[in-house]
Amino acid sequence: MLPGDVARPRTGGWRTGVKPSVDFALCVDCLLCWIHCPDTAVQQVHGVFQGFDYDLCKGCEVCSEVCPTGAIQMVAEATPLDPRGAILPEGGRRDG
Amino acid sequence: MASLKQLALREEERPRFSGGHSLCAGCGIPTIVRTVLDSIPGPVVAVSATGCLEVATTRFPFTAWGVPWLHVAFENAAAVASGVEAAYRSMANRGRLSGERVTIVVFAGDGGTYDIGLQALSGALERGHRFLYVCYDNEAYMNTGIQRSGATPFAASTTTSPVGSVGRGKAETRKDLTAIVVAHHIPYAAQASTSHWQDLSVKVERAVAQEGPSFLNVLSTCPPGWGHDARDGARLARLAVESRYWPLFEVVEGHYRLTHYPAHPTALVEWLEMQKRFAHLRGVQSVDLESMIEHEIMSQWQDLERRTVESKSWFEERDSESA
Amino acid sequence: MAKTMLGVEVLTGGEATAHAMRQIRPDVVPIYPITPQTPIIQTFSRFVADGKVDTVLLQVESEHSAMSAAVGAALAGARTMTATASQGLALMVEIIYIASGLRAPIVMAVGNRALSAPINIHGDHSDGMLARDSGAVQIYAENAQEAYDLMVMAPRIAEHPAVLLPVLVGQDGFSVTHSAENVALLRDEEVQDFVGPYEIPYPLLGGRPSSQGLFAMPDAYYEIKVRQILALEAAEQVFADTARAYALRFGRHLGAIEPYRMDDAERAIVLIGSTAGTAKDVVDELRERGEKVGLVVLRLFRPFPHQALADALGGVARVAVLDRATAPGTFPPLFADIRAGYQGSAELRSYVYGLGGRDTAPQDIEKVYAELRQPAKGGIRYLGLTGEDQHGES
After folding, report:
1. pLDDT of res. A94
2. What domains are defined for chain B?
3. C113-144 pLDDT, tens per residue?
4. Total domains in the fold of chain A
5. Domain that holds residue C44
6. Which of C75, C103, C211 is the best mutation test for A, with the most CBs of A within 10 A?
7. Theoretical Cys-Cys bridge with C60: which of B246, B276, C24, C65, CB 3.0 to 4.6 Å?
């Protein structure tokens, strides 16, 4: 097979009730979550943390365990988050 | 020495291993694979032995691999890699390849390395092929459902060394694979853990700079096999190192060097307690077993310390020459 | 095209094979010694040591690793050849299956030898038959000249885009591997030109990432295997084309089968390998006595040339199929294959001969032709047994 010939399977369906969320204000871009994520579900661009790919994330919680600042917290699957994983403020919109 | 940011930039530029595979939630293997692949500067050909990594990352027609990748069988990854390396040499000699140095990397589990693949590994090391062999050591045959291997530690419960009315887990101690590899007098061998990703990354850089074979034995946590919560993988990897269960060291041309001294070693029991495979040790009658593990670990550590002291002047001389 | 010539040398089958390999100039040759194949790799190693060929030799630690390394090298983009026999081939079989499945066009010489136990170093076809269903092309040589010619033809068959499968070129242990005879060698450049460059669709060292050796579930495995089987079937035509091209250029035609004095034959023997030499002498002698006997020698065993064999058998009345291997509990492999595919009217009888290097004398072959005059006894006949075991013939 040649890489890219087929779509990547979505393994997000493996999650069993929790998903990671992030408080960007606390994130220091240490990228420990990025290297420890078994599913390349932590997204970064040029070394800056960008959030999660929920199509891939299996909900193992390793990212929240290795996060040194508490920026990543596991939340219930139904919790509304913005596409990158930030918790939405009351009323459903995330500031800035 | 690459920073995480540099590794991330490389992965961004040329993703070599991607998610979407079916390795378990919390599996320790992908971090090994990505750290290894992202730490190698030039082009790579990867060879896998049959095992969790191979099965879960290449379910037809999907592939997680962004580099040329080959799997043939369980017991022969080192032989396959030596064929790829011989092809590289021959084609380069005959001017059929561009000048860029290709690194050949094997990824095989402990079953495919300590046990069924040992002969092929030994032969390849003896022949001196330039390749990096990475054993992701999760200490049992996990892909087939957690059976005892030569890497399974003493007393660990597996489906073929179960705890029962008579059985008390694996009756034998682990094989010292790294020592076996070192006995082949290869240029570079090391033990590493994902908890210390930079130590691993540096060892990869050193390994692939060699002109001969190099070997990395990397501890790989396994939620179903070890019986730990998926979230605890990184913590267990760290505790294995900090308790001195899994010392980080390298062997350069036969000279040993511990690359990490736990400042405040943690109690082995802290590591054992997090894993169901050692759950039977909590019983009163199992104190013996626990102390036997402790004894094995400590004698291994002391041996490495002694060797590190012995090799100190060799490393100093080498470093002063290169300075 | 003009026939080009040709130095004639006295060579054993093993040496002739090593010369073919030297002239093909493979990129990689993994080797491991085993009797009676060893003369091939020894001679080839000598060529390398003397600078007569610049192949990378891989002195591996087992035949299993030889075949494994061959798969790695062949798929990496290197023309790869190896050689083995007997227990070595048995040890390789797991990986020959995989080489076929991964479509690795490895060419391998086999010095056909009995399988243990009892351990025995002499010729028979048990090893080749163990690899019968591995998906590899199997060709058998009658003598050193054929071993050489077929080896030169083999890369073109293996590497043909419609095939891309391993090719095993068999020669009988000792009676071919170690027996010296006149062998006409081609010139190095002619061989080079005939085999051409090594080209496969997805070389691992070709710069374009590909994943090979994937895990196929029930939704895909079946289709992949059937494509592989069709590729092996396609090798029959490729073999025929290659044989024709070889004959046009070099004047020797080695077809999938060789019918010998089959015109108007009433009784015939079908067999594989070096015993054909003895059988041809017997046919000549019986023909002189006016007996209408003939012989069909099978060179291409996989894919099995059913139609060509049926055509060669023509109007023959009785056929003895001589197997130098067994399939305990049922009929031996060559007989079973012919029985399965043959639609003609001839009566087919099964004989086993020459196991473990047991000599097959002209009298044995004569006996078969004589028995073909008689009504069938049924079952399997064991030629050449001695003492009380003779009565063990079923």
Report:
1. 46
2. 4-322 (3.40.50.970)
3. 999 999 999 999 999 999 999 999 999 999 99
4. 1
5. 7-250
6. C211
7. C65
